[in-house]
């Protein structure tokens, strides 16, 4: 990045701009090297302004939410990380057809709690998922047969070429853990979204939340991780394939393939990003050798890596 561009960054972001920020404290895996530039956006409007600025100045950037789907090399990434802290949650619609409206940086846990407090059902599946509204809309997050595609009313996005857009669930082009935006990255940023929920009793909603929570506790490990590391291949489960390869419990450095669920790679507190990368590579090679299946990552890799 040129000195002129650095000066322009500082003029735009002011005190929000930080240099060489390590991402380990901002990711659910608790690993990640430094990024060249880092700044937060605290509202959807500010996120839009910052995004336009970075696009206009041809800055290579990513939007960071809860950090559950990103792995940055220990050697770092020479780009700009825009930390999405736009978290407002409001309600609209009608009593018969209520809407929950959330900015894209709102944590799914916060949204589940807000919906429950307002006696609105539809978001129970998201309890325990370590992500944000933006990540859920972008990647069509879901669990146990429910998910984003079923309840999304409108996603408010900023498109690099088309400007501000409001997209319905159908227009998002959803597929399994995918969307039109995810299949064509770098061209749009999600600002906020509204969701169609259903009025229900507090007891009914809390029972559903507890059911999802119980199933998650019984099937997924605790500890620092991405959540699911790999997408499920068609007609199968990544966790099953990894277990069938005898890899559960395998450890490289400070990262272990969970004995509870093979698709979770858990940091024991001493892991590096390179440990994660090497364990991911081992899993992909082994599953390919034994089952001729090419596992696809749910997470994004940034920076330089050594094979």
Alpha carbon gyration radius: 20 Å
| Count of DSSP H/I helices | 9
Report how far the terminal alpha carbons are from each other: 28 Å
Return the CATH topology of the largest domain. Answer: Uridine Diphospho-n-acetylenolpyruvylglucosamine Reductase, domain 3
Q: Explain this structure to me?
A:
The protein has 307 residues and is an alpha+beta fold. The protein folds into 3 domains: 3-84, Uridine Diphospho-n-acetylenolpyruvylglucosamine Reductase, domain 2, CATH 3.30.43; 89-219, Uridine Diphospho-n-acetylenolpyruvylglucosamine Reductase, domain 3 (2-Layer Sandwich), CATH 3.30.465.10; 238-302, Uridine Diphospho-n-acetylenolpyruvylglucosamine Reductase, domain 1 (Alpha-Beta Complex), CATH 3.90.78. 30% of the residues lie in helices and 26% in strands. The chain contains 9 helices and 18 strands. It has helices at 3-13, 44-56, 108-117, 133-139, 148-151, 180-183, 202-219, 238-244, 273-291; strands at 18-22, 34-41, 61-64, 70-72, 77-84, 89-93, 98-103, 120-121, 142-143, 146-147, 152-159, 163-167, 188-196, 198-199, 251-252, 255-257, 265-267, 300-302. It has a 5-stranded antiparallel beta sheet with strand order 6-7-13-11-12. It is globular, with a radius of gyration of 20 Å. The mean pLDDT is 93.
Which tags fit this structure?
single chain; 307 residues; Uridine Diphospho-n-acetylenolpyruvylglucosamine Reductase, domain 1; four-stranded mixed β-sheet; Uridine Diphospho-n-acetylenolpyruvylglucosamine Reductase, domain 2; five-stranded antiparallel β-sheet; 3 domains; Uridine Diphospho-n-acetylenolpyruvylglucosamine Reductase, domain 3; 26% strand; 9 helices; alpha+beta
């Amino acid at each position: 990045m040129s000195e002129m561009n650095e000066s322009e960054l500082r003029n735009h972001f002011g005190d929000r701009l930080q240099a060489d920020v390590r991402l380990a404290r901002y990711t659910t895996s608790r690993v990640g090297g430094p990024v060249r530039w880092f700044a937060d956006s605290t509202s959807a409007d500010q996120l839009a302004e910052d995004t336009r600025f970075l696009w206009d100045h041809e800055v290579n950037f990513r939007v960071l939410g809860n950090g559950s789907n990103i792995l940055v090399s220990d050697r770092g990434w020479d780009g700009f990380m825009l930390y999405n802290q736009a978290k407002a949650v409001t309600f609209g619609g009608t009593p018969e057809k209520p809407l929950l409206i959330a900015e894209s940086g709102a944590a799914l846990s916060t949204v589940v709690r807000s919906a429950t407090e307002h006696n609105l059902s539809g978001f129970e599946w998201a309890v325990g998922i370590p992500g944000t509204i933006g990540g859920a809309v972008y990647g069509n997050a879901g669990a146990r047969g429910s998910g984003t595609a079923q309840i999304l009313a409108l996603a408010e996005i900023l498109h690099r070429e088309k400007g501000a857009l409001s997209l319905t669930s159908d227009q998002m082009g959803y597929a399994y853990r995918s969307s039109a935006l995810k299949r064509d990255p770098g061209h749009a940023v999600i600002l906020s979204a509204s969701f169609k929920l259903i009025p229900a009793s507090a007891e009914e909603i809390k029972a559903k939340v507890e059911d999802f929570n119980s199933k998650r506790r019984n099937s997924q490990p605790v500890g620092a991780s991405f959540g699911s590391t790999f997408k499920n291949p068609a007609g199968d489960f990544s966790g099953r394939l990894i277990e069938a390869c005898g890899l559960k419990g395998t450890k490289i450095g400070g990262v272990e393939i969970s004995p509870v669920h093979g698709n979770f790679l858990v940091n024991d507190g001493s892991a590096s990003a390179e440990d994660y990368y090497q364990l991911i590579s081992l899993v992909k090679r082994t599953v390919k050798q034994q089952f001729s299946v090419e596992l696809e990552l749910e997470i994004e890799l940034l920076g330089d890596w050594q094979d």
